[in-house]
Amino acid sequence: MTGKERILVGIDGSEDAIRAARLAVKVARMLNATLTLAMIENPEDYAVTVERESLLKAKEELMWNILQTAKNEIAEEGVEIDTMIDVGNPALKLAEMAKNGYDMVVVSRKGLGATKSLFMGSVSVRLVQHSVVPVLVVP
């Protein structure tokens, strides 16, 4: 890793995700890195209907609010924090984003997903399988 490090943090609005983001801030401080908090809306969570696009659009404002709240909760002087939202499968989208100059991805072990496995959430497991950069999974 050279230059200014970049860390991508998956956020879903859960307390577990905030805990992971707090750890990412500590890592960012040690590495002199910037953070990007990313929230991914999974369109598969909605039934295939005519309203699907309008539902996603309506949720966009809520997503920005969740990211801003997370950013405010973890902000520390000296750590630059950006935010972004996207649409897609969260694990695959984070793995794809990580290819664009990120040095690490940080996610919580489990989040708000309806289906939780016994030890690790499906997003964290799938992200570890597909990422080309190190993934820090926070319990």
Quick description:
The chain is α/β, with parallel strands linked by helices and 139 residues long. Helices cover 42% and strands 21% of the residues.
Helical fraction equals 40-55%
Fourth-level CATH superfamily = HUPs
Helical run tally: 4
CATH topology: Rossmann fold
How many DSSP E strands? 5
CATH class term: Alpha Beta
Structural class comes to alpha/beta
How would you sum up the global shape? globular
Write the layout of secondary structure elements.
Layout: E1 6-10, H1 15-31, E2 34-41, H2 52-74, E3 81-87, H3 90-98, E4 104-108, H4 122-130, E5 135-138
Parallel strand pairs: 1-2, 1-4, 2-3, 4-5
Helix pairs in contact: 3-4
